Amino acid sequence: MIDSLTNDLTCVCVCVCVRVRVYLWVCQQKKRKQQREVDSLSLCSLDINEPSTKRTRSISKVSSLINLLPPVKTAPLKRIGQTLQRSISFRNDRRTEAPPPSQPCSKRRDSKLWSETFDTGHGTPQMLSPQDIRRQEAIFELAQGEQDLVEDLHLARKAYHDPMLKLSIMTEQELNQIFGTLNSLIPLHEDLLCQLRDARNPDGSTELVGPILTHWLPCLRQYTGYCSKQLAAKSLLDRRKQDPRVEDFLLRCLQSPFSRKLDLWNFLDIPRSRLVKYPLLLREIQKHTANEHPDKPYLDQAVSMVQGLLSDINQRTGEAECQYFKERLVYGQKSWRDGMVECSTTLCCHGELKNTRGVKLHVFLFQDALVITRSSSLNDQPISYQLCHQPIPIQQLVLEDLQDGEMRVGGSIRGAFSNNERSKNFLRLSSPRGQQSHCLQASDAFNKQQWINCIRLAKEAAVLDVEPLEAGPSAKAGAEPIEDIKAAAELEGVDYDCQLETYNHIIMKVF
């Protein structure tokens, strides 16, 4: 009897174990299946078909060009993708903003090629060479850029200026200072766009563009006032962003599709970025225009004109920038108020450097003096710069490039373990007889080299200014200012040292 009961219990236990194992196996399979479904769903969710920004040729348009020339690989028009995002910080925003909500897809522009608009149905009098096609592409790029610029200028006025004025988010005076002469630039570029469109033949090609440009380019002098006031406009805009109403309005615009994820200052800076592209655009058309083409002499004249105009605008903008910062210098002692700073009309470069204790200093390199300051801002007031030491004349300035590891850096005990990293990118600026000596650290090796190059150029320019005075008036008349040398190098596309870019006040490089 006992044996039979034992056998029965054994059988029951075995059955239970089998059922439990089967149940666990089924549950495990279900979990694996669910996991596979989740993984496949997550992979599918990542497969987002975003609109492509890559330009594609229409098959029908491209095939129509086969009758004109054999397939060739045309070089695209050179683009200059540099935009002004000044590294000047006019305010210290200590607030930590919450991450914005999910933004809708931005509205992107469709980019076209001239070959997509070319229509062979109207008939062509002659075969188009690869050079002719590249010329037409360059002209079309110029016209397309004007159209985009006009649209952006209208957008800045209708989506930003007018609503903020109507809703009393900013006063009319503040908006006039921020937007400057933006409204006067709209008809200027609409006129060029209209003339370029009228010059196009029914098939989409353009014969002559040089006469249009030589007649229109003098209108660019209107940019002098706009570019000269951009620095003050940026300062005011940054201060007004501290107002919650202004900040909320600009954030809502940034999240809207029409902004293409560009903030207000990006739109206000578009005209300046377009201005510095004209020499490259015109040289591209000139490059692909044959010498015997009737448009060639007009293009040569247009290139020369735009170089002279930009050089003049650059000089005026540099003078306005220099005056802007001179007005914000605060002298700790009356004896520090140096006539060399007051008489300076050129600000070679400026930016932040750190001393051996890690304190941030804002250094200005004027044409005749080096000024070391500390930046400060109070409430809604513009930022000011308190002088730490007496200005050092450029002619007496001694520059020393310190090797990495040569400078010992003070600070906390924890920082002692990373001295190898912290003692890099130092340079020493001093005056004769040891009156002043400053060891300053740049953010990186490139920044350091920029400062060294700028200081050397400023010292060379100071020597050139002194030598003509010693030689007499005739020698001074023949000396070419360093600003003109720099501007010519920029406009001619010469691969100069990087320090010359800091002198281009239209681009406004800041360290």
UniProtKB/TrEMBL annotation:
Residues 346-460 form the PH domain. GO terms for molecular function: guanyl-nucleotide exchange factor activity. Residues 88-128 are annotated as: Disordered. One of its GO terms (cellular component) is cytoplasm. Residues 134-316 form the DH domain. One of its GO terms (biological process) is positive regulation of Rho protein signal transduction. Its main location: cytoplasm. SUPFAM superfamilies: DBL homology domain (DH-domain), PH domain-like. It comes from Gadus morhua. It is found in: Cytoplasm. This is Rho guanine nucleotide exchange factor (GEF) 3. Keywords: Cytoplasm, Guanine-nucleotide releasing factor.
